Amino acid sequence: MAVENGEREYVQALQNFQQFRHAAEGPGFSQNRATRLLVLDAMADALDYGVAVAPADPFLNRLFLEVATEREQEIRRLNLH
Questions:
Q1: Measured between alpha carbons, how far is 23 from 36 in angstroms, rounded to an integer?
Q2: 10 partner at 20 to 30 Å CA-CA among 4, 17, 26, 46?
């Protein structure tokens, strides 16, 4: 049951990321900080599941840390404006 819930959350996070990626094709997407934060959240959700499944995977761990760092910086930028 927990695995099935985790898989559903992972699939949902990937679907959210794909929706945001398609929206990114429009002009000015990367300059919209709120939308960028939503994309980072979707990526973090998917990577969180990936790291839980394969905690020793160096690629997933590195990517998870990069996304988490970028997300934290984006939150700080949003709070400053």
A1: 11
A2: 26
Q: Please, are residues 20 and 35 in contact by the beta-carbon 8 Å criterion?
A: yes
Answer whether residue 50 shows pLDDT above 90.
no
Cβ atoms of residues 24 and 40 within 8 Å? no
Q: How many residues does the chain have?
A: 81
Q: What b/e sequence results for 43-55 when a residue is b if at least 16 CB atoms lie within 10 Å of its CB, and e otherwise?
A: bbbbbbbbbeeee
Q: Which domain holds residue 27?
A: 2-80
Amino acid at 67: V
Q: Count of domains in the chain? A: 1
* Per-residue tokens: 26: 């429009």
pTM of this structure: 0.61
